[in-house]
Amino acid sequence: MTKDSTSIHNSKPKSEMDESSTNNKDSYLSASNSLDPDSHQKKLEKTHLLKEGSSGKNSPYSFSPASSPHIHLRKLPGLTIVLKIGTSSVCDPATHVPLLSTLYSTVQMIHILRQQGHNVVLVSSGAVGTGLRRLKFHKKPTELAKVQAVAAVGQGRLMALWDNMFSFLDQPIAQVLLSRNDLSRPAQHVNAYNTFMELLSMGVIPIVNENDTVSLGGIRFGDNDTLSAITAGMIHADYLFLLTDVDCLYTDNPRNNPDAKRVLCVEDINALTGTVDATSAGSSLGTGGMATKLVAAELAMAAGVCTIITHSSKPQKVIDIISHFSKPENKGASADIPEEILCTRFLPSNNRLGDHKWWIKHGMRSSGTIFVDYGALIAISVQKKSLFAAGIVDVEGVFSFNQSVTISISTSLIPKDILRPNPPEYIEIGNGLVNYSSTEISRIKGLKSGMFESILGYCDSEDVIHRGSLVLNQIDDNFVKPL
Ligand SMILES: Nc1ncnc2c1ncn2[C@@H]1O[C@H](COP(=O)(O)OP(=O)(O)O)[C@@H](O)[C@H]1O
Ligand SMILES: N[C@@H](CCC(=O)OP(=O)(O)O)C(=O)O
C-alpha cells in the first residue's frame, strides 16, 4: 500500500442488509405496475397469476404475469464488466474536442477483455459535449430543453465515433438508451434485461447512455454514474468501473486540496462520512462529480458488484485490476494494491440485497410516503415484523398496490429519552412494496386487519407491507440512540 492512502472499513453490517433473503416467489419482475390506484380486480387477477406461475426455487425471475415478456435468469460464461466513461474523459472540458487517445485505448482494452472471454457493457457519457462541438456552442446551455437538444445532436455523433473505432477491430456495438422511468417498470425492465443478455451472448458491446430527450427533471437518472450502477445491478455484473479524470477517490477534491489522501478500499460507504469530502463539483461538463460516484458505488455494492474508481487515461489498467482482484487471495479488504494499478475499490456487500429488495430500494421510484408510529418502528426494525395498518398514522402521495413507497416517522412520535438533541422533523426508516393503494391505506390506517373486510369489502393481505418486501435503512446514530 502507498503511504498516502487510506483504507476505510466498517465491519458492522447495515440493518437493511440483515434481511438479505429474497422471496423468490414474489420477484419484482413479477410485479405489474398498475397506474390505477384502486384496481382491485386487477389485483385479484394478478394474485391468481402469481400463484399459478410461482415455480422455480432458485431463480428470482421464475415467473411473470402472462401478459408480460418472460424472463430467464442467464449466466453468461466469463466475467460481466460494466465500464462507465464520464464526459471529462470523452471530450476536452474546454474545447469539447474528443479525447481520441483515451477513446482508442478504451476500445483496445475492451477488445482484450472480449478476447479473454468476458462480457462488456460500456456506459458512455459525452452526448452533450459532442453536441456542443457540433453546434459550435462554447458553453453548456442552462435550460433543460436546450441541453436535451444538444444531447440529441451529440448522441448520434458519439455513437458514430465509437462505431468507427470498434469497427477497426471488427467489434459490433449497439446503442442502448435508458431512463430510470423505463427501468422502474417491471415489464420494461424485463425487456431491457433480455436485450442486454442477447447482445452480450451475441458478442456485441452495448453502449449505454441516458435517454436525454425524454428524461425529466425529477425522474431522470441525473447522471450516468447511477445509470451504470443500476445497469450493473440489473445484469448481475461482477465489476463496475467508473472511469474518470482522477485515479482514486480522495479524502477531499485533489484539485483544490493538495493534502487530500487516496482512499483505496471501502467496505462500508457510511464509514466515509466525516472522512471524505466529495461535495465539490467535477469538471464543467461532467454532471456528477465524486458525490454521484459514491451513490453509484453504494447501489452497486448492495447488488454484490465490485466497484472500482480509476483514471480513464490508462484504460489498460482495467485489465490488470481485474486480473489482480479476481485472484482469491486479493479479494479481501486488506489486499495490497501494486502502485501501477492504484484505484479505489468498493467491495461487494457480503450480505447483498436480493434482487427483489435491491429493486425496491434502488430500481423503483418511491411513489409516496407512509408515516408510522413508534410501535411500528420497533416492530419492523427490531422485531423484524411486517408493517401492519395498525401502526400507520398517515399517507402521502397517490400510489397503487405493488408500488414502492418510503416509510417515515415523525420524531415527535419517538420517546424523548431515545432521541438525540436537535433531530430532524422526520426520519426515513426504509422502503417497501405496498399491498394496498394509497386510498385504501388512508381508510385502514390505525386499524387491525380484522376490520379490512368491513371497510374495503375484501382483505387480500393482513399486512400493508410484507416483511419480504421491506428494505430498512440504518437509522442515523446522530438522531436516535440504538433501538
Ligand atoms: N473527494 C474527491 N476525490 C476525488 N475527486 C473529487 C473529490 N471531490 C470532488 N472531486 C472531483 O470529481 C471529479 C470527477 O467527477 P466528474 O468531473 O463528474 O467526472 P466524470 O465526467 O468522469 O463523471 C474530479 O475531477 C474531481 O475534481
Ligand atoms: N447523457 C449525458 C450524460 C451526462 C453525465 O452523466 O455526465 P457524467 O457525469 O460526466 O458521466 C451526456 O451524454 O452528455
From TrEMBL:
One of its GO terms (cellular component) is cytosol. One of its GO terms (molecular function) is glutamate 5-kinase activity. CDD domains: AAK_G5K_ProB, PUA_G5K. Pfam families: AA_kinase, PUA. InterPro entries: AceGlu_kinase-like_sf, Asp/Glu/Uridylate_kinase, G5K_ProB, Glu/AcGlu_kinase, Glu_5kinase, Glu_5kinase/COase_Synthase, Glutamate_5-kinase_CS, PUA. Residues 80-308 form the Aspartate/glutamate/uridylate kinase domain. It comes from the Eukaryota. This is Uncharacterized protein. The lineage of its organism: Eukaryota, Fungi, Fungi incertae sedis, Zoopagomycota, Kickxellomycotina.
